[in-house]
Amino acid sequence: MKAYCKICKTIIYPTSDFEFGVMALSHIMQYHFSHPSYSELLEKIIEQTKNDFIIEKDGRKMEIWTIYKHPLDYPEKFVARKFIFDKPTSEILIGDTLEEIRKLLPGGLTRIERDPKDDPVIVEAWIG
Length: 128
What we know:
five-stranded antiparallel sheet
C-alpha cells in the first residue's frame, strides 16, 4: 500500500488500513495542524482524547498555569491558577502585577500566548 499527502506530496507506506490511519493522522498533526481542512477536526480529536490520557513529562503530570488579570474573585489582582492538563487544582498564586506573578511561577515552564477565543481576563498560560 502507498499513499501520498495532497498538501506536501509526502509518501507513506502503511501495511494495513489501521496503520494508514495512524501514519496519516500523525503526519497531519506534525506537518499540517493549522491547515484549514484539518485544524477543526484535529482540535475535536484532541479535545475528545484529552480526558483519556494523563500526560507526564519526566515522571510528573503536565501542568498548566493560566494567568488572569482582575478576575471576578480577585478584581484588583493578577491570579495564576494551576491545572493538570485541563483539570483545575486548588493551587493559585496572587500578585499585584503580571511581573510579580511570573516571578512566582515554578521554573521550567514555557509561555503560551492567549488564544483570541479565551476569556478576556486571561493574559497568558505557562506549560511544563
